[in-house]
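Following up on my earlier thread - several people asked me to post the actual chain instead of describing it. Fair enough. Here it is, all 198 residues.
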Amino acid sequence: MNIAARWFALIVPILLALAGCHELGHMDGPGDYGSSGDTLVGEVRQVDARNREIELRTDAGRNWRIRYDNSTRVTYHQHEYTVTNLEPGDYVAMRTQQDRGGRLYVDQVTVRESVQDRGDRGQKGRLDSFEGSVAYIDNHRGSFEVRNRQNRLVVVTLPYNTPRAVSDRFNRLRVGDYVRVEGKFINQDRFELENFVS
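Reply from S.P.:
Thanks for posting it. Predicted structure:
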């Protein structure tokens, strides 16, 4: 290998790395690169709970897989949710940071439009239902806990696009009320509300 070829082999990877850094510093959104974090804006494609990654397709058409952790916050209409509440089709702004190893992760997700807001919601599948007594209400997070007849405690969360009638009923809830709800179990201890049956 001659000298020119050796220089070419050394310089090309460096230039590619710099180009990647330049692109990262000019993401789709208003953020500025640095300690305050950059902002990626786009549509959620999927949430990979096993690998703790969010797949995002930006407005520029690029796909990103961004890591998240237990401290990642998701907000929508001044309520907080977990990352697993994100749905494909949600339009979000993600504030990203770099860890000590230089890997990208998201510390804040702001939902600008839910998939329901955008009119992309698919047909509902069969709804789960259960009933019990209200044990605790968290108005800030838009959730409440229900204890059923088997003494099992389930956290019920309001969806992003809560219908007015459901929201009004939630605001009237009091500890001790007996409720029957319909929705979807996210896991055995967490339930996403669709509506109140009684």
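The first helix runs from residue 3 to 24. That should answer part of your original question.
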